[in-house]
Amino acid sequence: MVKSTEERLAAAAIELPPAVTPFGPYVAAVQTGNLLFLSGMLPTVGHEPKFLGRVGKELNVEQGCSGAYAAALNVLAVARQNLGSLDRISRVVKLGVYIATAGGRPDLVKIADAASELLRDIFGEDKISARLVFGVENLPFGVPVELEVIFEVG
Amino acid sequence: MVKSTEERLAAAAIELPPAVTPFGPYVAAVQTGNLLFLSGMLPTVGHEPKFLGRVGKELNVEQGCSGAYAAALNVLAVARQNLGSLDRISRVVKLGVYIATAGGRPDLVKIADAASELLRDIFGEDKISARLVFGVENLPFGVPVELEVIFEVG
Amino acid sequence: MVKSTEERLAAAAIELPPAVTPFGPYVAAVQTGNLLFLSGMLPTVGHEPKFLGRVGKELNVEQGCSGAYAAALNVLAVARQNLGSLDRISRVVKLGVYIATAGGRPDLVKIADAASELLRDIFGEDKISARLVFGVENLPFGVPVELEVIFEVG
Fold first, then answer.
1. How far apart are CA A149 and CA A145, in angstroms?
2. Taking CB atoms and an 8 Å limit, are B24 and C99 in contact across chains?
3. Which of A56, A79, A136, B144 has its CB 3.0 to 4.6 Å from that of A106, i.e. a possible disulfide?
4. Does the pLDDT at position C2 exceed 90?
5. CATH for the C35-153 domain, from 3.30.1330.40, 3.10.180.10, 3.20.20.10, 3.40.50.150
6. Closest CB from C91, C130, C136 relative to B26
7. Domains of chain A, residue spans
8. Is the Cβ of C109 closer than 8 Å to some Cβ of chain B?
9. C-alpha span between B130 and A29 (Å, rounded)
10. Residue B119 carries which DSSP code?
């Protein structure tokens, strides 16, 4: 039996946080046609950062991975709130992974993989995304990672 | 009476600058289907930067906000030139706010809000965008802020 | 006689490298509707970086231009592999040029133009893109430039 996205999420015993609300005059997601554009998702719980610092400076790569994973949970929570069910998502079109760094060369790919792997495990191999990864100078509130996601809605 | 976007712009007595022309072999905007993708908009008047420097270093947050506002005026000017009227825009889908920073932790959200608030005031609460914000190492010509916008055309 | 994209590529005697395969759990490109989103393309041959370093620090602007050109060849190779022929592309919608910099103010526009010019020469003046350019703190594997492209498929 092929599992649905929501069934895979339940089977993995992953509990999603409440969908994060905006920090200003914007919305968490906009649907246009069958594309759902999400706002930049951060490793926050509500409006509280779970991680602070730059990877390769205040934080190590493992902490960066944990930040990416936490931000990806917010991606799922916002998508479900907007669509009613993650089963409506027919494809993860784009995953942008933007990592705060500070002069070193931390393993950006490993951090991005932490988000990609969660999305692959939940949505399935046939829905994995194109991906864009780079290190930025600074992120809102001083968090280490921000995710940008575009979903295709079936 | 509900005002149209152009009526709100006129009521606010905001005069748009001439639409900025490209600095190289690209165009200011591309429409595909009902999405209008704008090139990165800078705080320039014509090809002259109105602000130079990085926020938290050569410029303060207030100057960053002014730069974001000036870039947002260019967004409106380019959109109107491409569509004939801003009233054809049915939604601001994505606003990306990319801010040149230099090691500090300036208030990125406040700077982004300066652009978001203008777009909200002109297009209305029901058309506000998803948003992506981060600090970059460097922007073209040394300006402090760049905006990326995708509009939905009705 | 108007030449097709594939004919222009052949006439320019440009030979594309093999399409680069992903470095993790993502795909090189995703098509949704008539938009083809490419993953961030780097100046690599296979999985080997052709250029390493930041522009204005370890590399000069000319090397940055060469990196942008090399990454643009990977864009073409991946697009052709996904679509069968570059002639199916009706428009270059978005070109993002993200350049690793380190405190100086190298000529970002010149580097971006190296990618834009190749795309213009191959796809033609009527298909040129909107463009977004900025300097980032760090890129995967330490390469100097990354390209993000969205194509419209006819």
1. 13
2. no
3. A56
4. no
5. 3.30.1330.40
6. C130
7. 45-153
8. yes
9. 5
10. H
Q: Does C103 touch chain A (CB under 8 A)?
A: no
DSSP run (H or E) holding A145: strand A145-153
Looking up tokens 């402090």 gives B144
Kindly tell me the sign of the dihedral angle through the C-alpha atoms of B142, A96, B132, C83: positive
The number of C-alpha atoms within 13 Å of B104 and in the hemisphere containing its C-beta is 14
pLDDT digits (tens, 9 = 90+) for A96-140: 999 999 998 999 999 999 999 999 999 999 999 999 999 999 999
Residues C56-114: pLDDT tens digits? 999 999 999 999 999 999 999 999 999 999 999 999 999 999 999 999 899 999 999 99
Among the partner-chain residues B105, B131, B136, the one whose CB lies closest to the CB of A136 is B136
Domain B40-153 has CATH 3.30.1330.40: yes
Record: contact C133-B148, CB cut-off 8 A:
no
Answer whether A138's CB lies under 8 Å from B134's CB.
yes
- Residue A62 belongs to what H/E stretch? helix A61-83
Say which amino acid occupies B137.
Answer: E
ipTM above 0.95, yes or no: yes
Give the pLDDT confidence score for residue B2 in this predicted structure.
Answer: 78
State the number of CA atoms in the 13 A half-sphere of A101 facing the CB.
27
Give the 3-state secondary structure percentages of chain B, helix then strand then coil, rounded to 5: 35, 30, 35
Contacts of C105 in chain B (CB under 8 A): 138, 142
